[in-house]
UniProtKB/TrEMBL annotation:
InterPro entries: Cell_wall_hydrolase_SleB, Cu_amine_oxidase-like_N, Mao_N_sf, SleB_dom1. This is Copper amine oxidase. Residues 183-276 form the Cell wall hydrolase SleB domain. GO terms for molecular function: hydrolase activity. It comes from Acetivibrio mesophilus. SUPFAM superfamilies: Copper amine oxidase, domain N. It comes from the Bacteria.
Amino acid sequence: MNSKGRCKVALVVLIVLLVSFIGCFEVSALTKETYITVKVNGNYIKMDNWPYIKDGRTFVSVRFIAEALGAKVEWNEEKKKVVIKDDYNYIELFIGSNESYINAVKQVMDASPEISNGRTMVPLRFVSETLDCSVDWNQTTYTVSINKEGIKVPEECVYKRSYTDDDLMWLARIVTVEARGMSLEGKVAVANVVLNRVKSPSFPNTVYDVIFQRGQFPPAYKSGFKELVPPDECIVAAKMALEGVNNIGTCLYFNNRPFTSRSGSFYKKIEGEYFYN
């Protein structure tokens, strides 16, 4: 072989090694999104800016929560002030300041209101309790429950969620056993296989029935599966998928080795798992 031929061979080998090297260090393309659900008197509340946790405090868009609780919200641009008022309370909050006024009485909060994506975000517990509500936090489903007697949540404030907490827990359980050790991307992909099957006429139409369809997910039949408490990262991945985060398109199958019978429908490989349409 002449020197030109050896150079071509070396170049091919180098490219193969480079591709293999990159594949070994695949980085998840997904960003973790913790979808926090807020309920008022049992109703899911519609929002255009998801709540988030910062320094141990849950921040929510003030307008959506206040209106769900029957209060009104006003914004003073010059003073960067939010006013929340109902029949009994007049609350003044200031962006970037932990000082507030409740019916003209000064109080100090443990977190300051802030602007996020153009929305005024306020510490949920402080505002809710000031409006005479009880507040509970469910770490398992990432849900805040606010309850107040004597109010009816306006219909326009209600979020018609397409899944139940049971759907979330079953999905998180199967992600736990099928995607153990995988990154967020792998966990979300496995969750979406289940959800794609729910939508497909070729499979059952509920999360539970898809998981327990005979011969499909063997780990679901092992002792303890039905009582399994999923770790946080699996609940987060399941909730991301339920809220529409999809990284595998319409895939209905996955396996830890190639399906020879489905080679034509191969979609992508994620951390050793092969996904097929």
